[in-house]
Design a protein that fits this description.
The chain is 20% helix and 33% strand. The chain is globular, with a radius of gyration of 29 Å. By secondary structure, it is of the alpha+beta class. Helix 6 (369-378) links the parallel strand 24 and strand 25. The longest helix is centred in the last third of the chain and has 25 residues, at 570-594. The model is unreliable at 819-826 (pLDDT under 50). It contains 19 helices and 44 strands.
Amino acid sequence: MKKLPLDTGWTLSRVRAPSSAPSLPATIPAAVPGNVHLDLLSARLITDPYLDVNEISQDWIGRSAWRYRMAFDWDDEEADRVDLSCLGLDTAARLELNGILLGETCNMHRSYRFDIRGQLKEGRNELIVDFDSAYAHGEAVRSALGSAADIPANYPGPGHLIRKMACNFGWDWGPSVVTAGIWKPVAIESWSKARLAIVRPEITLQGGDGMARLRIEVEWADEGTDSAALVMSIGGKRTEVRIAQGETHALAECRIDNPEIWWPHGLGGQPLYDLDLQLLGSDGAMLDRWQRRVGFRSVRLDTTPDEIGSAFTLVVNDVPVFARGANWIPEDCFLPRVTRERYRERIAQARDANMNILRVWGGGVYETDIFYEECDAAGIMVWQDFLFACAAYPEEEPVYGEIEAEAREAITRLMPHPSLVLWNGNNENIWGYFDWGWQDVLANRPWGAGYYLDLLPKLVAEIDPTRPYWPGSPYSGSMDIAPNADEHGCKHIWDVWNEVGYETYRNYIPRFCSEFGWQAPSTYATLIESVREKSRAPASPGVLHHQKATGGNDKLIKGLEDWFPAPENFDDWLFVTQLNQARAISVGVDHMRSHRPTCMGAIVWQLNDCWPVTSWAAVDGAGRKKPLWYALRNSYAPHLLTIQPRGDGLAAIAVNDATLFWRVPFTIERFDFSGTLLARHSVWRILCDRFENAEISIPKDVATPGNPKREFLRARLGDAEAWWFFEKDMKLQYPQPRFDLEAEPIADGVAVTVTAQSFLRDLCLFADRISPNAEVDDMLVNLMPGEGKTFRIKGLSKDAWEDADLSAIVRTANQVAGAAHPGEAE
């Protein structure tokens, strides 16, 4: 097979636009892969939609129709077949070659192939791809569906009626930037005799052996009596299968003795094997080739009934794994500009925060192969949603057939990746059907259950039988049980943040929590890069435009009640809301992990952002870490020590997710803020076996404060540490923070040592306020009087540090929780 990439020489022109749209040149240079927004940006015809409130003045782009055009030269190679391969067209496209219609497409999540042998001509050829507005396409589908389209959706736009990235139309963390364009590669593929149409690898473990089984579909160019050979190679083994002309299905298998096993991060290595499949003609010439890197491992989902309800546990290589992770949304609204380096950086940030799983959320896309390759290499498990989110979906044509074709292709494309451990039917749609008032609106119309409970499980069982499928998140395992029950399946916790304080996390003991979160603004550097107002304030136009959640800023302030006073200035607002986000999620994660094995997963909403915004993310839209990231690194540590309410008292819980037993001394002490030791309890040695928790009772004389406003607990188990404060910050009689600073240059930046003269809580250094490229290695540090901590800051010089105004850079909870209380010990 020969491939001619069509990645140069494209132009863009506007075919139709709203009357409010600005004028444009007749033709604009276009990049493929790319999209209309990126072409307009490159031509300087629009400003960055992520800046200020630019988004709202560019709505016309998504409501316009566009034409991509390119010319290429062709010399007839006398191949039996010549195909135009389009890996991604966003979304309603019409393709013409030399004035002849090739076909029409209507699904961003599928690839398309057109036989163009009869339309090509010697010499110059012209290819045109027209894209209708997604809004116009949505209206056409709505008209075709009739009353079947009158079904609930949580967000504006036709995202639930058409097969396009739903969050393109806006979400409570994302802008409305409705894209169009050729978002994945286009090429001309010439071939003769036969090609590999579909390859479905089942890579499994059978006892101590690895089994590589390929189910192959072959497409033939014409009829005849010739034959071909399928030659499969992996791990030094080779097998050959003969196939007669016209025969379309084949099976090739290899058994690998005692293979190296792929493990999630923290449990072992991630060895990958080169898997090669060649299609050879009767003369031995290679006709086609398929290559991937695969890993041997087993995975299942344990949903065994028990005395509580039923389990929800991912079991990898027969080891029950506590899933520590985050939800993943599209990394950019403009998908073609997400590079391998950007995927690698973000996945490394997940791994460095001690995560072992990312959930690819159903309102986005099936990610590019690069994303899954990087997860394979990093040992990050992937929970993959099918693309349904927060809406009812029609089950009638023309939607049903598109969804089936899309799902078949997605399953086939992604199944080589060992990181992929679970297929999930939808995000919140079963929950919506039962608890969001949908049933009154639907009046017995189909709403998507046929996909989640029938079509998708059948397709997974047929195409990818090596992986588990679950109908929804949240879902209890039965339509007869409340979908968001604690006792069964996976749960979302959203009354915390939306309605109640984060202490409420402790009211729930889910079997698996696949969504929970708390908002905060982006980092300072990201915020000032994206909002260029002279007077920034939480409710200033630019800052508020970068808050997409309904009532989001009000919830940020409400969430501070009893913890911190209402911020008096922008700097305090930024710090205290980020601190509160980190605190909230730590409470939730620590609580859930302390209840292992009842709870076996905590997947926070969310790891990343698609643009600069106030959101639930740990890493903001510019890739900068918020304080939440550092909190997650602590709370997701393989060795966690946490103090939790138990019965009418307190207990220390040791959580061991490491592969070796944990056997170290334990000490818990009660201090006052002056640093005076008030009570102490120690145990010579605590033994916490691998993948287990150990509960350590705290004697009442230690756990009971004399003055809860001035005292706290500090526990240590080896290198792990836990703190407990008896009151919320507003009632605590913190000392005013006093400390010494010393800076020393290091190879890649500066080392800053903070020595506490008073008790310091949640000490943070916001180096990005000095330089946008600076990054500190730790945050949210508690220090006793006399203790020191050295922070390493990359990307910053000693001179820059010493020249900076440190008042908004070195922050502690003490500074914002109120003035020093009378009578405190200094």
